[in-house]
Amino acid sequence: MDQASFADAARATRRMFVRDLVLDARIGVYAHEQGCTQRIRVNLDLAVEDDGAANLSRPAVGADDLGRVVDYDTVINAVRGVVTAGHVQLVETLAERMAEVCLHNKRIRMARVTVEKLDAVAGVASVGVEIERRNI
């Protein structure tokens, strides 16, 4: 699914995103990565239920109400919680855990999570992984 299809009136979804969240993580399999932190960058793309898209002939009731949407602060704090929970060996594992906490919110139908290690390889801007998971 491309980024544009995360927001889709026919599917009644909107695209919510978090860009360039930089955190210090205890991550890595190598001896020099144990007992220290590394900078990671997290990007999230979320397909969120959009009750306003379902009926365009009338505005959504209470349209300016936080209870109708997914609170990005809650999502960011959940991702931070994953990172501070302890050492993880693989970026893949970290991305899976982040997707899982995002999908705990049943309004989030799909999560695309990108996790990059920013200082892992000399001369390279970043290395990492991107995954996409769905709420079934």
CATH topology: GTP Cyclohydrolase I, domain 2
Note the overall shape: elongated
Major sheet, described briefly? Answer: 4 strands, antiparallel
Radius of gyration: 17 Å
Q: Mean of the pLDDT scores?
A: 90
The number of helical elements comes to: 2
Low-confidence runs = none
What name goes with the CATH superfamily?
A: GTP cyclohydrolase I, C-terminal domain/NADPH-dependent 7-cyano-7-deazaguanine reductase, N-terminal domain
What helical percentage do the residues reach?
A: 10-25%
When the domains are counted, the total is: 1
* Biggest β-sheet: strands ordered side by side in the sheet: 1-2-3-4
How would you portray this structure in words?
The protein contains two helices and four strands. The chain is of the alpha+beta class. The longest helix has 13 residues. It starts with 12 loop residues before the first strand and ends with a strand. The protein has one domain: GTP cyclohydrolase I, C-terminal domain/NADPH-dependent 7-cyano-7-deazaguanine reductase, N-terminal domain (GTP Cyclohydrolase I, domain 2), CATH 3.30.1130.10. The mean pLDDT is 90.
List the helices and strands and how they pair.
Elements: E1 13-25, E2 38-49, H1 72-84, H2 91-103, E3 108-117, E4 127-134
Antiparallel strand pairs: 1-2, 2-3, 3-4
Helix pairs in contact: 1-2
